[in-house]
Amino acid sequence: MRTSSRYVLTSVCIAALTACDGGGGSGSSAPDNGSNTAKDATVQTFNIGGAAFTGATVTVTDATGKEVGTCGPVKDDGKCDITIPASANAKAPLIIVASRTVNGEAERLVSMLGDVTSTEVKVTPITTLIAALLSPSGNPGNLASEVAGGTAVVTPAAIQAQADKVQTILAPLLEAAGVKNENPLAGGFVPDGTGYDRLLDALLVTITPASATASNIEVAVRGTDKVSTFTSQDSAPPALQAVDTATLPKEGMSLKITAFLKQMTDCYALPIDQRVSVPVNNNGNATGDASAVSAPACKAVFSGEDPVAYLSNGSRVGRDASNNGSFAGLFRTGATGVKFDMGAYEFTRANGDLVISYRNVDTQGVEAFDQIVVREDNDGKLRAIGNQYQYSGGVNAYHQLRMFPTLNQSGYSYYSTGYSLNVNNETEAGQLKFDRVEVSAPDGTTLTLWPDVGYTSLNFKRADDRVSGTSFLRLATSYMATPPSSLRPQDFEPSMKFAKPAFTEEQLTQATTQGVWTFRYFLRGNTGSTSDATQTYRTRARALTLSELKQKSFAELSNQFKTEGFADAVPDLPGNGAKAGTLPMYSAADGPQPALITVDGGGDAWTVPTSAMPPTRVTLFGSWFGNTRTGFNHTTRVAPTARNATITCTPFIGGSSNGTDPCAAGSAGAYGQNAYATDLQLNGTAKDGRVFSSHYATYKLILN
Fold first, then answer.
1. Nearest in space to 402 (alpha carbons), one of 55, 699, 97
2. How far is CA 255 from CA 12, 249, 260, in A?
3. CA–CA separation, 702 vs 485, rounded Å?
4. Residues 349, 405: Cα–Cα separation, whole Å
5. Exposed, middle or buried by CB within 10 Å (0-12, 13-18, 19+), for 134?
6. For residue 186, what pLDDT is reported?
7. Phi, psi dihedrals of residue 274, rounded to the nearest 5°
8. What does DSSP say about strands 105-113 and 119-123: parallel, antiparallel, or unpaired?
9. What's the rounded Cα separation, in Å, for the pair 204 and 153?
């Protein structure tokens, strides 16, 4: 279980014969002898500033593990009533869990009540933190079963002890928000973005299971360097450093974020011919720039109600024939009816603009998460402005399970954790735009990304000075099983980028969730030391430790696909030098065609185990063995529900389909001769930006 959400239920009202009145009485004040039972009781949940735990199901479980009440799904107003009848004979303690699944990822908020009496109980990331400290496993999602199994002691005194510990950790933030005397468990609060609500806007709690007996925990103030890291087993976690009230989000910010997302939803609810003023083609799409946005409801999304002002990572509002451009959905009929919700404050930029995160859901129910930079206009409303950066960039915590399914080398499969650096490989006047991009990590380490004609992004260089196919910095690695030899992954994967020395588990846990990375861009021809532009990016989650990573599940290629898809692997080096194990993309029998990630009979090419992140990007890596050997990668986006994909060939950056790249001449999207696939990768991105990659490499490892 991971909790880093700002979403909350302000309170659960448990009333024994009497109604709850919103008072702040303690939920852990009465003695508990294990037989305290409830009369008819009502559980109520209330909205907080538009950031309710919408879609969640709320359950109340008693000490025996019996579910004694439930309601849901939680609506936009956050209200949810549960009646616990006296006949349920509920026994304290009561564990209250609000749970939902978002894009395949389970989210839970947990709270508890040490006795069965009339009171209100908050259900927030803070109560979930208290639950983690009460849980023998450190996983708040296990608390109900641990109470029922007798391994967790959840008496009023135990609850109060852990609540006091959490209050000590949060004391500087509570002081800054003016709520130092607020009970973290009992009593409701007003959902207006002030007081306790404002505190929750600013708070970031991350709970990551690391083993069967402990979780790694981070408590931070968003957009600052104020952070406390500890484990669920620590007896005296460190308190946050002093917090300046001025660094907190403005009062009422959550309400403004909700209003902004509603404006986005209202815009996309309009038909395309009202959203934009340019012609719509037979496919229901249009092309145009920001000046074509015509609907007042859509113009109102942007700062100054002017879409022309928006700029993000070099992209402006519009859509070209390849579907490129910011807010390209405004120009597509298929985007009509997309809804935007689950908004949350992330941090405030140096110029006062805000970065917020949000979810969008299309009419087919496909979810996606993103961030956007907004600005408070003169009328007090938030509107989109973008980061105003000239070039693409970004960084994600990245985690990979790298497997070698062919040539009997599966014993060398390994986990790796680190960060991916993301800069698009672009051209200008038919030539590569960048000489290089230098990136400074939060710890001061400098990394360099380089362009090459075959890749869609800038990547690290290999040991032999060629540009590799990866921008993933591996901080630490571990074999899936018992190491087959004394070789380390960096010994047989010279084209990958490994930290030297590798990070320890402790070093990984100490990396801040909100690390700041600085990108310095050097344009083509600039081989000097002065960059042409500087841009900074902030992570939303740190890279997992290896012990945390091993608690995760990954998407898997199906056995049928591995049997069929890897059947044509090259057994030995062919005349053109392609590696053993690589897959020829062209066959005389089939002729030119795209890469089909499918199986015969219409089955699934990959499966997604419970709790695994569903892939939304499928990437084919390969090499073209023509006049020179050149690597390439091609990616397609898929819905989280998809289990098959088609990957089309695209010419080299600045190249053409004329026999000098992997694409077949005269057959758009198809692969030609001398193109060989070396790797297939399934990537899923979690709500907090963490990427989970199932990577299958088919080539023969050189083990010496």
1. 699
2. 22, 12, 9
3. 13
4. 45
5. buried
6. 84
7. -95, -30
8. unpaired
9. 27
**Range from 15-29, 537-551, 586-600, 657-671 that averages highest in pLDDT:** 537-551
* 330 DSSP 8-state letter: G
By DSSP bridging, strand 497-498 and strand 516-523 are unpaired
* β pairing state of 431-432 and 427-428: antiparallel
Q: How far is CA 4 from CA 38, 202, 221, in A?
A: 33, 12, 12
Q: Which residue has the higher pLDDT, 264 or 114?
A: 264
pLDDT at 47 over 80: no
Helix extents (H) in 309-379: none
Q: Are 348 and 249 in contact (CB under 8 A)?
A: yes
Q: What is the pLDDT, as a whole number, of residue 456? A: 93
Concatenating the DSSP letter of every residue in 175-221 gives HHHT-TT--SSBS----SSSHHHHHHHHEEEEEEE-SSS-EEEEEEE
> Which tokens is 221 given?
């103030």
Q: How many residues does the chain have?
A: 704
Element (H, E) at 65: none
Mean pLDDT of the chain: 89
For the segment 129-180, what is each residue's pLDDT rounded down to a tens digit?
Answer: 999 999 999 999 999 999 999 999 999 999 999 999 999 999 999 999 999 9
User: Are residues 339 and 214 in contact, defined by beta-carbon separation less than 8 angstroms?
Assistant: no
The owner of tokens 């419970």 is: 610
Q: What count of other Cβ atoms lies within 10 Å of the Cβ of residue 24?
A: 17
Burial of 459 (0-12, 13-18, 19+ CB in 10 A): buried
Task: Report which of 322, 340, 341 is spatially closest to residue 332, judged by C-alpha positions.
Answer: 322
CA distance 98 to 78: 11
Torsion angle of the four alpha carbons 520, 312, 420, 230, in this order, in degrees rounded to the nearest 10 = 100
**Taking each helix axis from N to C terminus, what angle separates 125-134 and 156-177, rounded to the nearest 10 degrees?**
140
Residue type, 120: E
Token couple for 402: 């790298």
Question: Residue 196 corresponds to which amino acid?
Answer: Y
Helix (H) or strand (E) holding 49: none
Band (56; pLDDT cuts 50, 70, 90): confident
pLDDT band for position 211 (cuts 50, 70, 90): very high
Q: What is the pLDDT of residue 87?
A: 83
Lowest-pLDDT choice from 17-31, 257-271, 457-471: 17-31
Q: How many C-beta atoms surround the C-beta of residue 485 within 10 A?
A: 10
Element (H, E) at 371: strand 367-376
Q: Which two tokens stand for residue 45?
A: 């949940």
Nearest to 245 by CA among 193, 206, 202: 202
Number of Cβ within a 10 Å radius of residue 660: 17
pLDDT, residue 45, reads 41
Task: Output b/e per residue, 374-398; b: 16+ Cβ within 10 A.
Answer: bbbeeeebbbbbbbbbebbbbbbbb
Residue 13 and residue 23: Cα distance in Å, rounded?
10
pLDDT tier at 83 (50, 70, 90 boundaries)? confident
Longest Cα–Cα distance in the chain: 85
The enclosing H or E element of 159 equals: helix 156-177
